[in-house]
User: Fold this.
Amino acid sequence: MSMDSLIRQSAASSSVISLGGGLPAPELFPRKRLTDAFMTAMRDPTCAALQYDWPEGQGCLREWVAQRLRQRGARVDRSDVIITAGAQQGIALAAHYLLPAGARVRVAAETYPAALDLFRRRKAELRIDDEAADCVYFMDGIGNPHGLVPDARQRAHVVAEGLPLIVDEAYAELSFDGSRLRPLIADAPDRVWHIGTLSKTLCPGLRIGWLVPPRFMLERTVELKQTMDLQSSSLSQVVVESYLASEDFDARLARAREFYKRRAKALCAAMRRRLPDWHFAEPSGGFAVFAEVDHPAVHPTDDEEWLRTAIEHGVAFDPGSLFRVRPNPRALAMRLCYSSTKVPDLLEAVHRLERAWSAFRSRRAGSVHTSTMEHAATASPALS
Assistant:
């Protein structure tokens, strides 16, 4: 069974506690307010929510995005913003122009898997650390999968380097202390392709994201967006506009940050208690913890076998290899998402991981022992 099949199997099983997927908490979905916003949209005599619209998106929503960026120091107005079908489409639009086949894109050693998949499909060369590149993909504000704020020197370096930047701020509004960094587009507007989304802070099903490309590329990017899908959903945009007009979004963010912070602390405490071999940095925000364990000579199938063992014990996670640009022969890793799991289930999930880890180590020890004995038997002359 493939890794994808294992993940789908675990997601479909009610007996498995899933710490995978990076899903926002359903408890935070504003169902009543979104229902009211939908009804408001349906009562509009112009039927704007049900009609075609321009490829760049609804003006009021674009102004909302621009205003929030201006509050953080960027010189952006509504005409600079393109509404996209989530952050992923924004990354794809930027990659179309910055990453022809063979182009070199520098990324973090562990980063957003869907971006890595996109870059690989475009036949781009993935680079890490200080390796030479033609452009940089950079998760700003809060990274994924580690949930950490980027180092100030690292941020300064990517701006000073002078390369085109695909800046993904998917989690930037969810730092636990409420801090919001000055956006990189404020300091390099001619090189930054700024990407944001409401998928993490409101709900992903509406598929509302945005892209702010360099102004000299704006017209070409709008044309490309139009060839892709004509436009992002009018219905979703009008509903979100109506919702935002009556919602204190910053108050919503404050509640969400505290909500996720509590779950993160519960997961980290349980991990330290039950899985002391695994090491991780306590997240500064976002949805997940990225945990690693020293595991010399990691076999290519160990990630899959570790996930399979965990599922047998009633718990699932995102294997670390999905986030890695290159295999790490010295460490096994997993991303554990606390965002959509209640605290009692988080504690039970870690308990199950503890049992699964013990079983996995026993299996691997037995496998290594068997392999060593077989090798010795093959290499040694027969005794008479």
